[in-house]
């Protein structure tokens, strides 16, 4: 009798723990699903995880490991390849869409979906930024701000400038010994985007701005814990400093205009100060700052990272590197002796290099997810996404789908030979009305850098086996510590 009673307490404890676990695991479901009525029975498969944290711990654990795709794999393993799953992310009930069809539907159906970035992200990027404004406001600002970074005329203006600082940077790096290749590339691409958007003010605020943008980016995809020591807390401080720096630049520009002191060229800041809507309303400084923050951040981070990865991947695959190099040499051979520097026409003739860049964009998937929100109850693939629920468009699942791209984690630019991707299968810049307006400028920067690198330099990594980090973006843990070395006597030097 006494022996039997000894086991009662442990059994009760175990049963209590199991009951508590069951209650906690179902708490989010009871809180967010039961109030939906009949709709709850049409929700996508999945689970809403634990109270408050939902699936965030699983997400962060996977992306801080060596296998970030294990996060989504848990959904496909448990629920099958449905292309749509429910979860609880960034404090909200959410739905992942992971197939070409579901991703494309969400990104192109503006009647059913609107921008839905987390509140914490909005606090960092700004409530007047492209991520937060309405579709109509977005169309107006996009039309205005895309003109300086898109189209033949606009891009032609930047070829010589980009080429000049690329040549200078590569020459400098080759004399510096050990460098963090990624860090140097981010500085280079930041200098380019600063020149385009801030013109004469760019050199004065460049270094201070880039430092703050680095802190800002670490906080964008972190948990919104506003306590000292956490990435989000540091990011909020960075935003405050960025706003102050840009406000000072705007004040200076306005004063110059009052005194009729014009800059050498009209840049994005001038355009944003001058723009008016159909009623004659001009943008307030808060709106100008948030637009500049969005462009300056996105405009250098993606270009810098993809340039680094394209260079590294080519070095790892000598056969692809040689083919890309031969294309660049052929461009030089065809050039008239009197021509100095690249032209946009030549850049657009780099067909193989374009495949290298597209393959890098696919494999790395710089932006792994974008956020939308259901404006009403939406039916997709037989499942209902309830009004107000967040929708996370998960690009990684599309770009690394073995049914779309055989051996998807293999770098193979030749997979793009005679291959036109079907709608929704290649989304490095998104699609639909919110397609990234700077995509052409980004590819131009990467192409010009690789052109000169392939012809004259090689990368010697100091830690070729360095592990990778995946948040906020994929990168080597050592930021690609390397030496940039000049190659032996090259075709370019012969032409000179």
What can you tell me about this protein's structure?
The protein is an alpha+beta fold. 54% of the residues lie in helices and 10% in strands. The chain is built from 19 helices and twelve strands. It has helices at residues 2-6, 8-32, 56-63, 70-79, 100-108, 119-125, 135-146, 152-173, 181-198, 202-220, 231-258, 268-274, 285-316, 318-334, 344-348, 351-364, 395-399, 439-456, 491-495; strands at 84-89, 92-97, 113-115, 178-180, 369-374, 378-380, 383-385, 390-394, 457-461, 468-469, 475-476, 481-486. α14 (318-334) packs antiparallel against α16 (351-364). The longest helix is centred in the middle third of the chain and has 32 residues, at 285-316.
């Amino acid at each position: 009798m006494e022996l039997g009673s000894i086991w009662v307490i442990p059994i009760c404890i175990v049963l209590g723990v199991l009951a508590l676990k069951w209650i906690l695991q179902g708490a989010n479901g009871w809180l967010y699903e039961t109030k939906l009525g009949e709709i709850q029975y049409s929700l996508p498969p999945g689970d809403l995880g634990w109270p408050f944290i939902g699936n965030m711990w699983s997400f962060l654990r996977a992306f801080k490991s060596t296998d970030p795709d294990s996060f989504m794999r848990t959904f496909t393993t448990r629920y099958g390849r449905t292309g749509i799953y429910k979860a609880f992310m960034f404090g909200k009930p959410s739905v992942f869409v992971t197939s070409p069809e579901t991703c494309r539907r969400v990104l192109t159906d503006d009647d059913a979906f609107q921008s839905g970035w987390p509140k914490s992200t909005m606090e960092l990027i700004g409530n007047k930024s492209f991520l937060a404004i309405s579709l109509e406001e977005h169309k107006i600002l996009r039309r205005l701000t895309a003109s300086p970074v898109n189209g033949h005329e606009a891009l032609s203006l930047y070829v010589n400038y980009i080429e000049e600082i690329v040549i200078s940077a590569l020459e400098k790096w080759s004399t510096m010994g050990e460098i963090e290749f990624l860090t140097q590339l981010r500085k280079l691409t930041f200098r380019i985007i600063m020149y385009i958007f801030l013109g004469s003010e760019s050199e004065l605020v460049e270094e201070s701005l880039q430092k703050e943008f680095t802190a800002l980016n670490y906080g964008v995809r972190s948990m919104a814990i506003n306590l000292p020591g956490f990435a989000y807390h540091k990011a909020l401080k960075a935003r405050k400093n960025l706003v102050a720096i840009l406000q000072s630049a705007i004040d200076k520009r306005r004063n110059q205009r009052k005194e009729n002191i014009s800059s050498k060229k009209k840049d994005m800041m001038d355009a944003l100060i001058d723009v008016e809507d159909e009623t004659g309303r001009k943008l307030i400084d808060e709106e100008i700052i948030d637009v500049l923050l969005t462009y300056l951040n996105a405009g250098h981070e993606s270009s810098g990272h993809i340039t680094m990865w394209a260079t590294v991947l080519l070095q790892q695959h000598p056969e692809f590197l040689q083919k890309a190099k031969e294309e660049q040499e052929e461009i030089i051979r065809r050039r008239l002796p009197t021509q100095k520097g690249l032209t946009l026409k030549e850049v657009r003739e780099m067909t193989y290099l374009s495949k290298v860049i597209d393959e890098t964009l696919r494999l790395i998937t710089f932006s792994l997810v974008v956020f939308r929100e259901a404006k009403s109850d939406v039916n997709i693939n037989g499942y209902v996404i309830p009004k107000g629920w967040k929708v996370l468009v998960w690009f990684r699942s599309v770009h690394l789908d073995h049914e779309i791209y055989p051996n998807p984690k293999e770098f193979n630019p030749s997979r793009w030979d005679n291959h036109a991707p079907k709608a929704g299968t290649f989304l490095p810049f998104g699609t639909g009305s919110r397609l990234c307006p700077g995509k052409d400028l980004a590819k131009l920067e990467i192409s010009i850098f690789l052109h000169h690198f392939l012809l004259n330099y090689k990368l010697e990594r100091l830690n070729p086996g360095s592990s990778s980090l995946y948040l906020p973006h994929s990168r080597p843990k050592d930021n690609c510590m390397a030496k940039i070395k000049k190659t032996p006597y090259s075709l370019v030097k012969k032409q000179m």
